[in-house]
Amino acid sequence: MSPPVVVSIQTEELDSGTWGQAAEGGFVAESHSVVQQLHDPEPFKLTIVVPVFNEENTVRQVLEGLVAQPIPGDFEIIVVDDGSTDRTKEILQATWHSRHVCVRHETNRGKGAAVRTGISMASGTHLLVFDADSEYDPADIPSLIAPILSGRADVVYGVRVRGAGALFPSYINVVGNWLMTAAANLLYGSAISDLHTCLKLVPVPMLRHMQLEEKGFGLDTEISAELLRRGFRPFEIPVSYVGRTREEGKKIRLTDAFRCLEVLARVRLRARTRYGARDMSVAPRVSMAMFPEVANAVDL
Known about the structure:
The protein is of the alpha/beta class. It has a single domain, classed as Spore Coat Polysaccharide Biosynthesis Protein SpsA, Chain A. The chain is built from nine helices and twelve strands. It has helices at residues 59-67, 88-94, 111-121, 141-149, 171-188, 204-209, 218-229, 254-268, 292-295; strands at 6-9, 42-43, 45-52, 74-82, 100-105, 126-129, 156-160, 166-167, 200-203, 235-239, 241-242, 286-287. The strands form three sheets. The chain has an eight-stranded mixed β-sheet with strand order 1-5-4-3-6-9-7-10, sandwiched between helices. A two-stranded parallel sheet has the order 2-12.
């Protein structure tokens, strides 16, 4: 087995036009066009970005679960260690798999910065962020991919539904997410169910075309806001969820809710596009003939 690919990033920012070179394994990523004009369907490839910060208790289980999934076609897992100070780095080295690209920020820069690093290095047609805290189930990923392969959706969200395979630590968590989601729907004229779900399956060209600025948890909101203002609407699939408490390592705080509202308002001031006029050049058509069993996995 070849040695693990490890990229150490010390610069303040790695933007979508700059690519890192691995310290080991000779990995060099090439730049991609921000907007791809896609005519014929291309093979589906999934990039899974796993931002990690001090998740020594769960990261191994999450990565092993991701590798074990029956994901159609090619896929890659970009693990971004955002300056962890616990045993995360050693666990990542021990859990390395040929599907992994391990990236490390030498200092903690925030979840948003970690995700943006992953976006800049992605080589897939579509990208999914998957947290390393085991709140979500990797087994839901094939169901998220199905609407993309069948041509029914441009973007897919895995939504958490109270009373249907989801555990929320407290009622305040449910109310908070409902209020933030309602604010997004009011501002953008949308009808989404779960603004803050981690499981957002988005075309890579679309992500690279977005004006993403957030370095912290606000990036999650910024991606949804950018998507909605550009006229796209997510196809929603229920997913399993077991929420963590602060004592169990949950890092998001009340201040992040206020940041969410600020991001929604800021992005709303930019020009909007109607759903019927959305730019389909940033949503690549992918072939599904190779994977009919996955395309039919969900009753569409």
